[in-house]
Amino acid sequence: MNCILRGVRVIDPLARRDAAGQDVWLSEGRIIAIYKHMGEGTLPVIDLTPPPGGTPVILCPGFIDIHTHLREPGDEGAETIHSGSQAAAAGGFTQIVAMANTVPPIDSPDRVKEATFRAVAASVQVLTGCALTKGLKGEELVDMEACAAAGAAAFSDDGRNGFSPRLLSEAIGRAVSLGRPVMIHPEDEEVLAQVNRVQGPVQRCSLRPVEAETRAIDYALRALAHAGKGHVHLQHVSSAAGVEMIRRAKEGGANVTAEATPHHLGMWLPFATEPQPAGLLKVNPPLRTDRDREALIQGLRDGVIDTVATDHAPHRVEEKALPYDRAAPGMIGLELALAVCITLGGMSGDWIPTLVDRLTIGPYRVLGKASGIREPRLRIGEAATCVLFDPEAEWTVEPAHLRSGSQNTPLLGARLHGRVLMTLVDGALVHHDRQRLPWPASAAGTETARG
Ligand SMILES: [Zn+2]
């Protein structure tokens, strides 16, 4: 592509840049220049200038998702690295961290290497999340040093929380020299086992009270304090009480970070009819009350919550069609994240720059440079990794248009605002909404696949 995008709002949080009415000159996947007004000469111009009083489209660094489930290896019928990374590209995500709970789990240096190798040709950069404990069982730490050397970007037993505070404390201490975050799925398994009256794995149990979250957060914060150094990251916080604990811990100087998912921020059931099957609404931790949702939004706005993370969790149809108690937990999120945050998650209008922050430098800071994450920046002259989106554009969530290998979202048929028009990764065009962003023939050039 070789063209000028006219009338764009450019937001680059690390550069402290937020300027409307810009012309962006793109050539062969590079941003050649960003100016207030460019004489086009012979270049084709795609005029995106909004009508007076209208909302401009936004160009910003590509989004980062630190919490994605790709089901490869083990359940490629639900998602593959290929389909999941295409869904990421369609959602504006250019770097994602794949969780380790595949079959088998990514819990050894060899498996980290294999997983990293498998993802080399993906549409977006896929970083490898490594389990914290072998087999996600909570009994024995993985060889953290060797797994980091093999390419692990972060450590998480996501889906499980079976380790003792003592083991967690050791992990936090060991992670310091590796510069990798330890990420916690904060749902205490003792509490879950008690309220559900079960023994053994508790992933599918449907009773998941707030106490499970607050107790797990409490343990994680104690483990961090006991380690006396290091960083702990709390995944998918879901309750007002959880937000409050994190707020207090941060005020007290603890090196803790946290994420919220689009569905916990936004989904207070804007549905005309209950989604069918009911299992589509099942997610761990569960969607709670309006008060919890409002606390999460407030936390995201004021920075107690550092980042939006999708917890993209694809499942085959039959896994969600089971009776609610046995249905698989989780929903897809990569392609819906932006629109859900804008439409339902309290991040529209003046909150858009904050949302961009929480989708770019927020996750970048959680991961840290040593993880292999790349700095989210719009750099002149370099192959671009960026996203162009229209915060107002309205669209309908249609199964046929989703790129994920699964369609388990209660939002099928919903009307949402916020649409990704174009995603570039290392200069390659990995997503392009041809209807809303028609290239003039003269601008098209070659559209190359990455990798
Ligand atoms: Zn989780």
Description:
With 451 residues, this protein is of the alpha/beta class. Helices cover 28% and strands 22% of the residues. The chain has 14 helices and 16 strands. The strands form 2 sheets. Strands 1, 2, 3, 4, 5, 14, 15 and 16 form an 8-stranded mixed β-sheet that branches. The protein has an 8-stranded parallel β-sheet with strand order 6-7-8-9-10-11-12-13, sandwiched between helices. Strand 11, helix 7 and strand 12 form a beta-alpha-beta unit. The longest helix is centred in the middle third of the chain and has 18 residues, at 210-227. The radius of gyration is 21 Å and the shape is globular. The structure holds zinc ion (ZN). Residues 158-159, 185, 235-236 line the site of zinc ion (ZN).
